[in-house]
Q: What sequence folds into this?
């Protein structure tokens, strides 16, 4: 399985390497990566004499809200970065001693690749051959080196692994660490706390895991908040003020996006509201399942929350597919799950090809074939995510939960009983 993962990671690097030294068009030739442009735009600052220097992220950064010409702006300046602090530190370490964007990608790839193997190994330990849905996923080729997403996936999978070994506090701490790479693992603290409270009848433990996860995230961020709060908060205010991605469902109304017709504040309220409503409903279904089965579906609720976030988020970047892949491995019966995984891979390829090819030939007057392909992928992906919300929350895990602890009031049945209403 690790060898298979290594092959896909290698092909992922070779795909991005086609753009080295300007030999290919990153959009048209499908080898775009965020590493090269962000190397110059975020990490290096002009000294004023024509030379540039590597800036330590966040400590002097800020978000520019008004341009020098006096027009509204949403620009990160002086080392501010649009990613949480551990990703920013990884970017900085990858840039030490390198001279150009190509070398930066090569160095960063060496840092990132081991995280793909960690995720593969832990998924194999938990689920066996099902880990192929991570190790042999087309998304690994497309996105392993598209952005800095492999660390958060590996840390999140490690959290589920530790939970499966009866260490919920360490799992919560790893979710906090993951949130310092990309924010989404913080969502999993709520179902983890409910699992402790309901399944194990441990209210104190529920509070402890919530505090452990949130506290870990705060401890990692606190030094940056103290040194320069403006540089730290710029990460989050930047995303709050930005519009939707062209490859999100919110830009399926094409003219609205091209004309800048969306009000970011209004869209924030809508997306947050939809995510919150779905999130409450998912946890409610989890509690309903607990009453029937006496086991809270922790992993299933996490998968449904992940699908909800991807469905409604205004910033649905292509590489977020990596975030969802472990849940195909961890949840559901293998036949239907494999079909859903394959369909999602097809939709993802449609979106990936369409969005980057569209960047080379779109205009306000035209409706090119690349955009048609992109829209098919967007709506196919959205339909699958909506189905996955329900499928994940109602399905069975594909690996055992931790054994009952000595001080629990009652043993925890495992494997989960097959509910009569869950035929798939």
A:
């Amino acid at each position: 399985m690790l060898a298979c993962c290594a092959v896909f990671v290698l092909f992922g690097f070779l795909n991005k390497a086609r753009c080295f030294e300007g030999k290919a068009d990153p959009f048209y030739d499908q080898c775009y990566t965020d590493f090269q442009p962000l190397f110059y735009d975020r990490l290096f600052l002009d000294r004023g004499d024509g030379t540039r220097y590597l800036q330590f992220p966040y400590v002097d950064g800020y978000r520019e809200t008004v341009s020098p010409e006096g027009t509204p702006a949403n620009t990160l300046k002086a080392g501010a970065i649009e990613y949480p602090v551990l990703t920013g530190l990884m970017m900085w370490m990858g840039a030490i001693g390198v001279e150009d964007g190509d070398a930066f990608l090569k160095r960063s790839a060496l840092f990132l690749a081991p995280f793909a193997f960690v995720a593969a190994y832990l998924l194999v330990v938990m689920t066996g051959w099902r880990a192929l849905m991570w190790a042999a996923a087309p998304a690994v080729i497309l996105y392993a080196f598209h952005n800095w997403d492999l660390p958060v996936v590996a840390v999140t999978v490690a959290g589920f692994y530790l939970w499966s070994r009866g260490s919920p506090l360490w799992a919560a701490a790893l979710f906090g660490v993951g949130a310092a790479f990309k924010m989404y693992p913080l969502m999993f603290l709520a179902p983890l706390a409910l699992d402790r409270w309901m399944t194990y009848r441990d209210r104190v433990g529920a509070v402890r895991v919530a505090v452990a996860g949130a506290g870990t995230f705060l401890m990692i961020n606190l030094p940056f908040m103290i040194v320069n709060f403006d540089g730290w908060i710029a990460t989050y205010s930047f995303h709050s003020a930005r519009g939707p991605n062209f490859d999100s469902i919110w830009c399926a109304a094409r003219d609205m996006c091209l004309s800048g017709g969306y009000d970011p504040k209004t869209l924030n309220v809508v997306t947050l509201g939809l995510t919150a409503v779905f999130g409450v409903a998912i946890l409610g279904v989890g509690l309903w399942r607990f009453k029937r089965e006496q086991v809270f579906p922790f992993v299933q609720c996490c998968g449904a929350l992940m699908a909800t976030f991807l469905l409604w988020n205004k910033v649905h970047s292509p590489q977020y597919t990596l975030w969802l892949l472990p849940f195909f491995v961890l949840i559901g019966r293998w036949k239907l799950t494999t079909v859903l995984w394959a369909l999602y891979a097809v939709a993802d390829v449609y979106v990936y090809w369409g969005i980057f090819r569209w960047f080379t030939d779109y205009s306000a007057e035209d409706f090119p074939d690349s955009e048609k392909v992109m829209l098919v992928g967007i709506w196919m992906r959205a339909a699958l995510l909506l189905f996955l919300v329900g499928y994940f929350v109602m399905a069975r895990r594909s690996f055992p939960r931790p054994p009952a602890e000595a001080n629990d009031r009652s043993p925890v049945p495992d494997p989960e009983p097959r509910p009569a209403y869950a035929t798939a």
